[in-house]
């Protein structure tokens, strides 16, 4: 009778390699003793091994922008310290907590070991590494300064991910206000108002118009709650699908967003920051302006800014200076950004000036988001108070009227 295979566990380990460099990682093995033997065969002297605790909620499995930013920073740090690319990828893969990241980085390592460039290996993962990332890595490999370019990429990704997080935070507050207000209202209408209705039925007197309105609204929610909630869910799904697949709808929403009070200014400043940061990074890496603008268009995060950037690309390709082309989009780019670009072109330091523009608008976004957070937190309480208070008043109006009669 065949012996049943032993189950494997994931172990987290720390050790020292042949060069005396302290490294850490995690491997799947049947036991701690077998893992020690495996590491020693690979030239690693393990100093600490422990079984990895399982996450209560399973942990995040999807690779996000923050993971890519960290990967770029780790590669830049290790390569600048003299660690070869293949070994750097191996260390990162073994030390990562996300299985999806481990698999991807091991895949990159295998491709590079097989003779491919890192840029070619990255093209196999288009969902994680966009054209901009690949182009910058390719420029670094061709110029022999990959670690420097990786450092620029890491800084760029960290900045862009930070501004994306700020925008999401700002947009989440209104969504939270609407969602919480709707859920609280639905609970009151479905479960609380019917109890008052039974009490009112025994009064034998006419009810105030406001109370009748709330009672009818409660009956509507009780009978058709599944239609209401399903309709809202389908509406959100249809909106997201149309925004993703229909260019015309996407363009319409992006244009409307730019004109919404407060949030429009926030969206505009974040788009300018991403435009300046991306163009600065690519220009500093030695990418020609015309080629850089094509990659910048997809990084702005707004269709109208992307269209403006592509028009700038056409203009600069025909010999027009960037500052002259930008002047036709003064409704998108404030005068300060135009002046900084003009100074950068005249002084030959366009990348530095664009970096300063990005720093300025990123700081503006930070200030605006912090201000919105301060403003919207009490606003949530006010809106909920008005809704709940209105329902309470509607339910107690008949009781107050009855007390006056008595």
From TrEMBL:
GO BP, sorted A to Z: protein secretion by the type II secretion system
Where are the bilayer-spanning segments? 171-192, 224-243, 378-399
One GO CC annotation: plasma membrane
The signal peptide stretch is: none
Sequence ranges assigned to domain Type II secretion system protein GspF in this UniProt record:
72-194, 275-398
Q: How does it sit in the membrane?
A: Multi-pass membrane protein
Q: What keywords were assigned to this record?
A: Cell inner membrane, Cell membrane, Membrane, Transmembrane, Transmembrane helix, Transport
- Entries under Pfam families matching the protein: T2SSF
Top-level division of the source organism's lineage: Bacteria
Q: Where in the cell is it found?
A: Cell inner membrane
Q: Does the keyword Chaperone apply?
A: no
The UniProt entry's sequence similarity note says: Belongs to the GSP F family.
Instruction: Output the PANTHER family linked to this UniProt entry.
Output: GENERAL SECRETION PATHWAY PROTEIN (PTHR30012), PROTEIN TRANSPORT PROTEIN HOFC HOMOLOG (PTHR30012:SF7)
Q: What is this protein called?
A: Type II secretion system protein F
What species does this protein belong to? Answer: Acidihalobacter prosperus
